Amino acid sequence: MLIGSDFYQCNALELAQKLLGKKLRYEKIELRITEVEAYMGPDDSACHTAKGKTPRNEPMWGPSGRLYIYLCYGMHQMVNIVAGNHDGQAVLIRSCEPIKGLVEIEKRRGNKKGPVLLTGPGKIGQVLAVDQSFNHHPLYRKGGISLHNAPEVKEILRAKRVGIDYAKPKDRDALYRLAVADSAWVSQRKGFK
DNA sequence: ACAAGGATCCTCT
DNA sequence: GAGGATCCTTGTT
């Protein structure tokens, strides 16, 4: 069942927790969200909005429940879901588990097999084939990418966020990286034990 | 107008 | 474990 816009009216950490286990649908592909990171807004030095509004981060200041797509290292389209209330928060989707469209997913990922297909934010963007034109796209309406309900996640793992060495210690150390405990479809490079 | 660096991934060793 | 790919955003001249 399609999730309505009210679902996203909370801070990024709460939304991150609620997003685990939910299903992202785009055309014939359906993914279960297994790992996310919360970016809490201007007071979070790891967050893109820590230095105020810029052309790039403008979607994060808009309505929640919409997409913010960030081009990283000139080649990876990172998929974020805007949280909060026009106050610069978002949740980065880091890993998913395939539910439907496995053949298409494997095709877009060079015919690889297993968790290497979808564990890592750059891979999610590659599989969904998003680009900058997906900025602002609402997930709570039919058409394009949408988010759908699923059974509650039993247990959640927490860890530090990845790749934010530039942030202040208090933000670097915050356990804002969340994952589904019993899923193999989680990037394991650091943190989770 | 310019330089620096990034919320990563892959291919080696 | 190390390094390259690749280009946009940002802050600074």
Key structural traits:
alpha+beta, globular, DNA-binding
Tell me about this structure.
This protein is an alpha+beta fold. The chain has four helices and eight strands. Strands 1, 2, 3, 4, 5, 6, 7 and 8 form an eight-stranded antiparallel sheet that branches. The radius of gyration is 15 Å and the shape is globular. 40% of the residues are buried. The mean pLDDT is 96. The protein binds a DNA duplex (13 and 13 nucleotides) through strand 3, strand 4 and helix 3.
Number of helices: 4
User: End-to-end distance, in Å?
Assistant: 33 Å
Order of helices and strands: HEEEEEHHEEHE
Low-confidence stretches: none
The SS-based structural class is: alpha+beta
Give the mean pLDDT: 96
Rg (CA only): 15 Å
The shape is: globular
- Percent of residues in beta strands: 25-35%
Helix content: 10-25%
Q: Which sheet architecture does the biggest sheet show?
A: 8 strands, antiparallel
Quaternary state of this entry equals single chain
Total strands:
8
Structure described in brief:
With 193 residues, the protein is α+β, with helices and mostly antiparallel strands. It has four helices and eight strands, in the order H-E-E-E-E-E-H-H-E-E-H-E.
Question: Which SSEs are present, and which pair or pack?
Answer:
Elements: H1 12-19, E1 23-26, E2 29-39, E3 67-72, E4 76-83, E5 89-100, H2 102-108, H3 121-128, E6 146-148, E7 156-159, H4 169-172, E8 177-180
The structure holds a DNA duplex (13 and 13 nucleotides).
